[in-house]
UniProtKB/TrEMBL annotation:
EC numbers for this chain: 6.3.5.2
Recorded superkingdom: Eukaryota
Top-level enzyme category: ligase
Protein residues bound to ATP: S29, G30, G31, V32, D33, S34, A35
Name listed for the protein in its UniProt record: GMP synthase [glutamine-hydrolyzing]
GMPS ATP-PPase domain mapped to chain residues: 2-199
Cellular component GO terms, alphabetical: cytosol
Coiled-coil boundaries: none
GO molecular function term, any single one: ATP binding
Keyword Zinc assigned: no
Biological pathway: Purine metabolism; GMP biosynthesis; GMP from XMP (L-Gln route): step 1/1
Amino acid sequence: SWTPGNVASDAIARIREQVGDGSVICALSGGVDSAVTAALLHRAIGDQLTCIFVNNGLLRLEEAERVQATFRRGMGLNLSYVDASERFVTRLAGVTDPETKRKVIGEEFIRVFEEAATGLGEVEFLAQGTLYPDVIESEAPANAPAGSALSARIKTHHNVGGLPENMKLQLVEPLRYLFKDEVRDVGLELGLPPDMVYRQPFPGPGLAIRVIGEVTLEKLEMLRACDWIVIDEIKGADLYDRVWQSFAVLSDSRTVGVQGDYRTYGYVCAIRCVTSEDAMTADWVRLPYEVLARISSRIVNEVPGVNRVVYDITSKPPGTIEWE
Ligand code: XMP
């Protein structure tokens, strides 16, 4: 019968069988899929697993800290933490086109990941949080280069935008027969913190596609502060688990404001909050005015550089969930 416990012990047995006494690496992103993958692998093979967490400087406030607290201190898992914030932000200088941002971030991720993996000695396996829906989507892809073990199934919408072929790693995909809800159940069963298991989706390119136009350290700083306030208020209103995504966007528009006796010229922050089943369509949430009011007044009071807040009331289609 299907219980999270059975599924977990099944997956653990399979991992042991596939991996033997080989070494495995796994990229942790902070998302639920990679978290559950890592937790399963850790249960199955302990120290034969090393996880790599790349801080790309595009993460939410405290995200890097949270991942380290859960996996290294909480689980005792081998975690290689790479702070590559400066590299990513440097590479993004002058880049304004959304798809170019994604490409730059994807390429830089591979470089950083490869460098980190090289330092680990002999590695034979790469663990990935591929889910059943990803497997169906990528069965017999038209553009899969022959002979490349890694090419076809890499999740295009994930941090791991594709890995170098010369790494020649075999894939370990313990979630490939599971749906998202089942993954969450397994995650709870393995003792992962509920706020990690029920985290809203967060795009691989992170805050870079929520800073409209050029990404700079200052803008990332502003957006991180706005984002924190949005999540804090949405959680405070008990809405976090009831919406698909809720977040802030830092527009590249500046408007005039007034603070005390001074005229300000600050950025416009947009709030996005949507319901959705599968991200293909989405509707904007009719947030209570009080929640909107608190978010707005906190942002303009607490985040220097932002002096105006607007709410996005566009559905998908024709809008997308993200702004870029
Ligand atoms: P859109 O904006 O296309 O987003 O309506 C649909 C869902 O996908 C997420 N998203 C991404 N996730 N890398 C990701 O990992 C990306 O480049 C990316 N772009 C959008 C978005 O957050 C939403 O959940």
